[in-house]
Amino acid sequence: MNIEILIAAIKMVFIFAWTLTIAALMTWVERRGSGLIQNRLGPNRVGPFGLFQPLADAIKFFFKEDLIPLAADKILFLAAPFIFGLTAFAAYAVIPFGDKIVINGREIFLQVADVNIGFLYVLGLSSLAVYGLVIGGWASNNKYSTLGALRSTAQMVSYEVPIGLSLLAAVMVYSTFSLREIAEAQTGTILGFLPKWGIFLQPLGFLVYLVAAFAEANRLPFDLPETESEIVAGYHTEYGSMKLGLYLFGEYVNMYVLSAMITTVYLGSWHLPWIDLSQYLPPLLYGIVSFLIFFAKVAFFLWLFVWIRWTLPRFRWDQVMGLGWKALIPLALFNILITALVIQLTS
Fold first, then answer.
1. Alpha-carbon distance 197 to 205, whole Å?
2. Residue 127 and residue 156: Cα distance in Å, rounded?
3. Considering only CA atoms, which of 214, 196, 238, 194 is closest in space to residue 314?
4. Which of 7, 17, 274, 277 falls between 20 and 30 A from 47, CA-CA?
5. pTM for the predicted model, two decimal places
6. Where are the chain's structural domains?
7. How far is CA 177 from CA 94, 167, 172, in A?
8. Sorted alphabetically, which NCBIfam families does this protein's record hold (predicted)?
9. How far is 258 from 254, CA to CA, in rounded Å?
10. pLDDT digits over 43-56, tens only?
11. Cα–Cα dist 233/314, whole Å
12. What is the DSSP track for 283-320?
């Protein structure tokens, strides 16, 4: 077997296993975090500190009876969770999760695929994810599921516009669609002391992307597609067993991808401020440390998703749509205009 194909296969298996582990761990973090915020214990029975609770949940999902409503469109009903889960997992393929490691003189970049349109690839897959929600809600033939599917369509399509516009401004700054090149460009400083990170070069774009990311992930205060107090569970009301598990895992994987995108574009990716670790660490150790730095930044945003969920109340539907179309999109367009003017004046 060609060594390059073998390396690519190893990276794919590692990323799939790592992402699946993080998604499972986030179910525990979600519960323990809500317990911490609400002054209660959270899961504490299955394993030390309840750490084996995700494993118990997975076993429960696998062995629960798999029911399909009589009036449902069976083929689409079965396909929808896989569409949603597959798009969430596939989006991470182009995101660099570290710099590189060197083994026997061979450089191995910590990224499954370094494509020159990585930015467009992630946006395209995030656009396809909404089909998993819409198809699942419609195929269930349930009025609550259909309403949740319609809400998810309007919300995700609306908030993909500010996400795309905010990232477009970052592309204007870095002059590339490659996520690795964007990450590598965030070295050095600006104004003599600030790290040359996207959050300092594009503060307004970062704010727009961060808010829109919560809506894209269907997280509170933007969880209108599955509001329990209004439409039971929205698009996945009729789902159970592992099909429901795919929807829930897909949501956490989507959170992980969005957090990784924020880290890559706006938070310096694997770089630390004011220090170049590659000058002080052996190549193999540096690659491992760069991965850990990247994941530490991603972990912060994953915790932010949990923190916001158990802190802010849910918005009304008109507020969700108004924020997207009347606030975030105009701000994103204004940010593009300012970015273009600054680039023109400084070139």
1. 12
2. 8
3. 214
4. 17
5. 0.91
6. 70-346
7. 11, 10, 9
8. PRK06076.1-2
9. 6
10. 888 888 888 998 89
11. 15
12. HHHHHHHHHHHHHHHHHHHHHHHHHHHTTSPPPPHHHH
